[in-house]
Amino acid sequence: MDSGKVVYSNQCLSCHQANGLGIADVHPPLNGKSVTGDKIKLIVFLMNGPNTQGEMNGKIYQHAMFTNSEINDQEIADVLTFIRNSFGNKASSVKATDVKAARKKLN
């Protein structure tokens, strides 16, 4: 969780805020089913970001998320484990092997 918090602070905090609630109508909150559900979908979303707009928890957000291709598999696993267990979330952890499997699906 600690290493995921560091990645979150460096990569995610400016848009999604320290409390994970995002910025209304611009950056989505990082809680709920979109975060705690399908790990692979979440991993792919983080690695690629949406092309033009993103849907989280049934709401469309107009500001596209930046692609996070520069962070490695372990950092992705760490930050998603942090997010999936913060901000009121409680979900299983994400492992680097999950990220590797998702990356293979993209290629």
What does this structure look like?
By secondary structure, the protein is mainly alpha-helical. The chain has a single domain, classed as Cytochrome c-like domain (Cytochrome Bc1 Complex, Chain D, domain 2, Orthogonal Bundle), CATH 1.10.760. Helix content is 48%, strand content 6%. The chain has 6 helices and 2 strands, in the order H-H-H-H-E-E-H-H. It has helices at residues 2-11, 13-16, 33-36, 39-48, 73-84, 96-106; strands at 54-56, 59-61. The chain has a two-stranded antiparallel sheet. Strand 1 and strand 2 form a beta hairpin.
Major sheet strand order: 1-2
Order of helices and strands: HHHHEEHH
Considering DSSP H and I runs of 4 or more, what fraction of the residues is helical? 40-55%
The number of helices is 6
> What's the number of domains?
1
User: What would you report as the Rg, rounded to the nearest angstrom?
Assistant: 12 Å
Strand content: 5-15%
Question: By helix and strand content, what is the structural category?
Answer: mainly alpha
What is the terminal-to-terminal distance? 29 Å
CATH-defined architecture: Orthogonal Bundle
CATH superfamily grouping = Cytochrome c-like domain
The profile of the biggest β sheet is: 2 strands, antiparallel
Residue runs with pLDDT of under 50 for 5 or more positions: none
Mean pLDDT: 87
- By CATH reckoning, the class would read Mainly Alpha
Write down how many β-strands occur, each being a DSSP E stretch of 2 or more residues.
2
Overall 3D form: globular
